[in-house]
Write a structure and sequence with these properties.
The chain has about 290 residues and is of the alpha/beta class. Helices cover about 30% and strands about 20% of the residues. The protein has helices spanning about 50-60, 90-105, 115-120, 150-170, 185-195, 210-215, 235-240, 275-285, and strands spanning about 5-10, 20-25, 35-40, 65-70, 110-115, 135, 220-225, 250-255. The longest helix is centred in the middle third of the chain and has 22 residues, at about 150-170.
Amino acid sequence: MGQSTNQQVTLTTSDGYVVTGILFQPALGAESNCLGQIIVAGATGVPQGFYKRFAEFAAAQGYQVLTLDYRGLGLSKPASLKGFEMEYLDWAKRDLKAAVDYMSQDSQPLYMVGHSFGGHAFGLLDNHAAVRKLCTFATGAGWHGWMPKAEQLKVQMMWKVIGPVLTTWKGYLPWKMLGMGEDLPLGVYKDWRKWCRYPHYFFEDPDMKGIDKPFATVKASIRAVNSVDDLWAPPQSRDAFMKAYTQAKVELIDLHPAEVGMQNIGHMGYFRPQAKPLWEETLKWFQA
């Protein structure tokens, strides 16, 4: 098929914040037979540009695809993160919610592809019923205990030593300085650090009582794919989180890189060019 086209769009959230997304239109010759719409719900600290290759691929197959930068990231960040106030879950309850509202104005079926945080966010949407299916990659509970021993030590060092020092110095988490992704607002860092103390993430936080209730209202079909070499979100971490979707039809898939012709996947490889077989399988599942 031909090349897709894309355009920048702005989404105004319920609290008036303006989030910037990129809308990828189906390739010429494909738009007359549009197969549906896809929202890409990205991972923590990952700018939407990382998902461009997947979005272009899906658009070439006949889908309209929306990527977005959550507030504080990429095209949606303020002039300075120092003093920028927000809560981690604003990304779900406000920013991703606005994306679903925007895309559900069309009559085409709506799907979502999540990456890590994207699988957390889906259960927090009050408009999740507009989405027929969610395929999420690398979604896990975040607790260091689910990780291999060496990774546990690295993560504990980050939360207990490096993070506190850097956030005190900068007023936000300079994630980019560490080569980990986009810089993170202070509110995101504090919430994330707190919830990663618990084996079942925010579901065990005493201050978040009742957060499991919206997850129990989800009835969409969900595919949760985790590579066995994903150090941050191995399959057991995924299982600890995804069990909150009690009413959904959840398919748990343990992925071995060799099955899709890759040497390694880790936490980020699901959206690298070599992962095209994964993308093909995901689009087939949307249509099944």
